[in-house]
Design a protein that fits this description.
Helix content is about 0%, strand content about 70%. By secondary structure, the protein is mainly β. The chain has one domain. A hairpin with a 3-residue loop joins strand 1 and strand 2. The two termini are about 15 Å apart.
Length: about 50
C-alpha cells in the first residue's frame, strides 16, 4: 500500500495482525488472521 500513497499509522500483533493506514481523506485497516497454514485477509477502507 505504501507504493499507492498510503502511510502506515500503526500496527498491532496479538492473535492476528492489524495494520492501519491513512492517506489524504481516507483510512484503511488490513487484518491478517493466520489459521492452520492459511491466512485470511480482511481489508476495510473508506473516507474519513
Amino acid at each position: 500500500m505504501l507504493n499507492k500513497g498510503w502511510t502506515l499509522v500503526n500496527s498491532i500483533k496479538h492473535k492476528n495482525y492489524i495494520l492501519n493506514y491513512e492517506k489524504e481523506g481516507w483510512a484503511a485497516t488490513v487484518i491478517l488472521n493466520p489459521n492452520y497454514g492459511r491466512t485470511n485477509i480482511e481489508i476495510q477502507a473508506g473516507p474519513k
